[in-house]
Amino acid sequence: MEISSFPFPTPEDYPSNFFSFFQDFDFPTTDNTTATVFASEPLLKKRKTDDFDFDSIVEEGSLKTVEDILSKFLGFDNEEEKINTQFDFSSHQPTQPLVNQSVFELNQQKMDSVKPLTGNNKRSRQNSAEFISTSEDSTGGGNSQPPLQQRRLWVKDRSKAWWEQCNSPDFPEEEFKKAFRMSKATFDMICDELESVVTKKDTMLRQAIPVRQRVAVCIWRLATGEPLREVSKRFGLGISTCHKLVLEVCTAIRSVLMPKFLQWPDENKMNQIKQEYQMFSGIQNVGGSIYTTHVPIIAPKVSVAAYFNKRHTERNQKTSYSVTVQGVVDPKGVFTDVCIGWPGSMSDDKVLEKSALYQRANRGLLRDVWVVGNSGFPLMDWVLAPYTRQNLTWTQHAFNEKVGEIQRVAKEAFMRMKARWSCLQKRTEVKLQDLPVVLGACCVLHNICEMRGEELNPELKFDLFDDEMVPENIVRSMNAVQARDQIAHKLLHHNHAGTNFL
């Protein structure tokens, strides 16, 4: 579709008193006359059907009427815009030559000279803060040059009252612990450890977010599991900024704190762990209790079937997708090894085969060490699993009871971790590729709280339930079968076996 251009006004279309406005224009003529000839000769009145009332021009002949017509014609809205134009109505002369200029060009010049609106824009900036950064003259003051254009940054003014109250020294310890699942002393220790990695520099446009606020955004998000929009309201930051801070702090926790607070024990530490497990179970050489839990996720865009959790779906009557978290804990419930991120459709024994712990054992680094698992793990030279067949003897029942006590240590550790960090209880908004970093940070923070004696509020108790699937090949080593039978015999004949199975 083609649209014709707006016709430029000609002398034939307007009365005589209007030609003073166009006296500098070169009108085309066919009879060797000029524009002044047209002005001197009277013209017949023509009735127009447009918005202009030309009769009022002839009858009144006033300059004010001409100005009103120009105002409508050029689109002026007020008197201030009329004054800013390039025409001088008092002298009826243009301040600049108008030859070979169209009405649209004049209107464009007027629009370029109009100042930007500050009050009637669509998005109100009443709740915004304005930051202006100016640049000094590059000549140093000798030959002054026109000042550079100012840069403006509009930042939404958000309330930080809640965080400022929590960050106050007068804020009650119990309230702080309820919000962040840890005491102020533990929180300060984490901030000090992460300060060198998390700190950002101020810029010309804004000040950097303090380290304490950055760490608090991450910990509060993990502790409550609230959506990012609620985190934004609490800390007075943008939603995207809060999401970025959570990932940055979790990455810093993994790189800085994980080597210090989550690592496989050395020889001295391992001997201490063996003694503690033997004291309450009677089983020698137990170096850890292993357990695998599932963390719900939103259905991924790729490999959906791999993350589909059939057992949880059947039990809850709701389609469930998950990732696995395998962990080995010491007698105090502190993680010594974790394997995170494998799809939820994998069984516990398959996850174990994919873990670094399995590779460490194949290299002979777990010699003379038992890792106790539940019925979902196979019996191997270094993995001690309970009896799963029916019609068990008293000796076998007694053995399963002691193995259950050791296994309960790992399960309760996962229960406390999920209760402390509520983000693990429901489907998270974190992308699948970023989820292992977040889950690893939760494990590290759990260890810090456990090592520092941070008690968990009983109101946050969480019941953990994971289905145990017996592997197809339950026995992987005949030597392990004999070793298990010997352990069960010693427990029964040395009065270490209980009678709860009776």
Automatic annotation (TrEMBL):
Biased composition, class Polar residues, residue ranges: 118-148
Keywords: Hydrolase, Metal-binding, Nuclease, Nucleus
Residue ranges constituting the DDE Tnp4 domain according to the UniProt record: 290-447
Presence of keyword RNA-binding: no
Cofactor dependence: a divalent metal cation
Domain of life: Eukaryota
Stored InterPro entries: HARBI1-like, HARBI1_dom
Signal peptide: none
Region of interest (Disordered), residue spans: 113-149
Cellular component terms (Gene Ontology): nucleus
Subcellular location: Nucleus
GO molecular function, one term: hydrolase activity
Family, per entry: Belongs to the HARBI1 family.
Protein name as it appears in the record: DDE Tnp4 domain-containing protein
Species annotation: Nicotiana attenuata (Coyote tobacco)
